[in-house]
Amino acid sequence: AYHGDTAGCMAVCDPEEGMHSLFAGFLPQHYFAPAPTASFEAGEDEVQADLDALRGVLGAHHEEIGALLMEPLLQAAGGLNMISPHYLRGARALCDEFDVLLIFDEVATGFGRTGKMFAADHADVTPDIMVLSKGLTGGYLGHAATLATDRVHDAFIGDSELHAFMHGPTFMGNPLACRVALESLAVFEEDDYLGRIQALNDVLCEELLDDAELRAHPDVADVRVLGATAVIEVHDAETLEGVAGFARRQGVWLRPFGHWLYTMPAYITSSNDLRRITDVMKHWFTARHVPSTSQ
Ligand SMILES: *Cc1c(COP(=O)(O)O)cnc(C)c1O
After folding, report:
1. Do domains 7-190 and 193-287 have the same CATH topology?
2. CATH fold of 7-190
3. Domain 193-287 has CATH 1.10.760.10
């Protein structure tokens, strides 16, 4: 998982494959459950092994665990992993059973990225705490929000210094950022962004998921699409060396990392522009296997 670059956030990111190993000795230690292995399409039975693994960690350590934190449905910078809604439902049930709070980091998934307003909506699950940012302002101004259920909120709201949660940065509740967020959300509704996201999803499915040649390419390990997100995962990270320059020369900006060549297009992207993006993603693989001619 990936949850951010400040100290508390780094401590809950992937401890081994994340980018924060430099800080390992400095960060507080947490328990990590094994990453879910079942895909987005997995049925209830198929997520059972993943949930058993989660139960193992919660069962052994729930007395010391305050909350289970996850990126629901879609791990973004953690590798574009797409997780079954059944896993979210199972995680909710386990958190209730062990009296552990459930936190959904919807910074990447919130506001339509997975095809519904929130990833939690796919599973009809309510987390105890939900973290929102990126899509809240559409990137026009930095802003974030932490939402909590009444049960959590009531536990720290009050006038007593011993009870109230007196903790926050200087520019918290910034009025301009809040205004931008409200405007961004208004545009989201007025311009039917969920409809646009569905249209983007159709193109991504057609151009990437349904491309048998791409999926059968020897360098390609997997192709995944969820909402307005698509990724081509490769077997060997070296396969993607040079792809950013290759794309830029064709007027497309891609930022691959690790084993993942992905796109999370802006919701205003037209179908034609999106096809330009997916064409470049595909051409990287087809062009690679054309024998090079003398130049
Ligand atoms: C980008 C991201 C963050 C970090 O947000 P910052 O504003 O950089 O702190 C946290 N969680 C997820 C899932 C993200 O994608």
Report:
1. no
2. Aspartate Aminotransferase; domain 2 (3.40.640)
3. no
The pLDDT of residue 289 is 56
Confidence (pLDDT) at 19: 67
Token pair for 75? 């791990």
Distance in angstroms (rounded) separating the CA atoms of residues 50 and 42: 11
pLDDT of residue 65: 97
Ligand 1 binding pocket, CB closer than 6 Å:
2-4, 71, 76-77, 105, 107-108, 133
Pocket-testing residue among 109, 133, 257, 264, ligand 1, by greatest number of atoms within 8 A of Cβ:
133
Ligand 1 atom with least separation from CA of 142: 7
**Å from CA of 245 to ligand 1 middle:** 26
Confidence of residue 294 (pLDDT cuts 50, 70, 90): very low
Which pTM value belongs to this model? 0.93
Of 157-166, 222-231, 232-241, 260-269, give the lowest mean pLDDT range: 157-166
Averaged pLDDT for residues 42-65: 97
